[in-house]
Amino acid sequence: MKKEIYISKSIGETRIAILEDDRLVEVYVEKEDQHRMVGNIYKGKVENVLPGMQAAFVDIGYDINAFLPFSEIHSSEYLNTDYDRDNGNGRSNHHNSDNISVDLQTGQDIFVQVIKEPFASKGPRVTTEVAIPGRLLVLVPNANYIGISKKIWDKYERRRLRKLALQLKEDGLGLIVRTVAEGKSEETIRNDYRMLREHWERLEKKARRLEAPALIYEDLETASSVIRDLLTSDVGKIILDSKRLYKRLRSYLEDVSPNLANRLELYKLKVPLFESMGIESEISKLLRPKVWLKSGAYLIIEKTEAMVVVDVNSGRYVGRELHEENSLKINLEAAREVARQLRLRDLSGLIVIDFIDMREPDNQRKVYYELRKELKKDRAKVAVSPISDFGLLEMTRQRIRVSLLDSMSEECPTCGGSGRIISKDTLITRIDHWLRRYKAKHRSLRLTLHIHPEVYDYLQEQKRQALRGLMWQNFIHLKIVPDNTVPRDEFRFTKGKDRVDITEEVEVG
User: Fold this and answer.
1) What is the value of pTM for the model shown?
2) Domain co-membership, 99 together with 183
3) Residues 166 and 50 in one domain
4) Are residues 313 and 295 in the same domain?
5) CA–CA separation, 363 vs 287, rounded Å?
6) Using one digit for the tens of pLDDT, what is the confidence trace for 252-270?
7) Contacts of 321 by beta carbon, 8 Å cutoff, 6+ apart
8) Could you tell me the pLDDT band of residue 43, with boundaries at 50, 70 and 90?
9) Does some domain include residue 317?
10) Which range marks the domain in which residue 191 is found?
């Protein structure tokens, strides 16, 4: 598989696009004034301990306190009850318990690392299992296990890396061998471990010096972290349009992987990088709910606060087979595209997919296994259930950062996020109600009504009779003014030559 990474930096944000076999599969957006928090380590202060919620809230210096579930407390220093802390690889296993007793006090200092970005009214989610990533290894202080990436398949290579990790590992320090360590020399891996060890010692000294809440370790910005985490042997090239970022990333690679530094390329053309590569138009499509498939079928992807809903529709597809075979073809194509869209849009939480109905259980299983196969390409953790009796497939996807939709768009001030606004006739009804309430308190005979030009044309062309009835009924003369400053679903009343705004004098639901 050919993989390429494109990084474009502008005044407002940095965008990263990952292509596999010339097809866009992942997009990351980092705003200049909103740097990511995942991976950051804080010396926090416990604000509340809520056994009923099985969670604590920790002040890390952010606007909203961080959320620490008891299941994310991995250090025996903070636990009351003895748990089976070995599940085969030395990792903590206490999170399987439904009732964890902790030894946390309000005002107590605690080291935590962010594992989920804050979103809306929710603060960041944190864990006590601090991990410091390097290029080849991840150092896990206050742990006692060795982990080898599951993506390293060769058993002899796994055995070699585990043996080397055992030689490097010290008491009280866990170690995880990353996928990119595969095939690397012993000296290179040892150097990476030495750098991580020295880095942790510096962080410990910094932590002792600072008072909570304080940032102890800040992870790399998104562009650098993508290079660190994704730059494997199958990445053909990384193209950037920022000279400053190019120099920084080249310096980083020359330190950790000199043999990969020549894969960096600086883009110098005047045409924007993403436009020249056709990526910009692809990203624009990701903000739309409808996704067309090659067959003529399409998906509708709707994100709500509670879940993500995906609806599969046959659209323009005209098959020559029977209904069952046609449905299977569309659903298999849709399963592949749904998996890709989840990665691209970074959608997470509960996801419900409404496939086209199929009667044969074998066909339902084929679609289920096709989706599972495609989701293996996803770096986020997923859990998928078979298609239910109602033809729905339920799954969950791990949330680490906010979705692409939330990163690149804002809530519409007109519709308030509903995606719809009131009809013109409903707006006229509200105007009628406003006038009735106003006339109940005032004796004005002339008012000016300011409305959007589209509503003005509608009144003049189709509602002239209704408008006259409105004035006769309320015994008032209205001067109707088209006004571009008035939103399409609102109105404004003024009176007198000075046109004093009186809209707020009357409340209309």
Assistant:
1) 0.72
2) yes
3) yes
4) yes
5) 31
6) 777 767 777 888 899 988 8
7) 329
8) very high
9) yes
10) 43-217
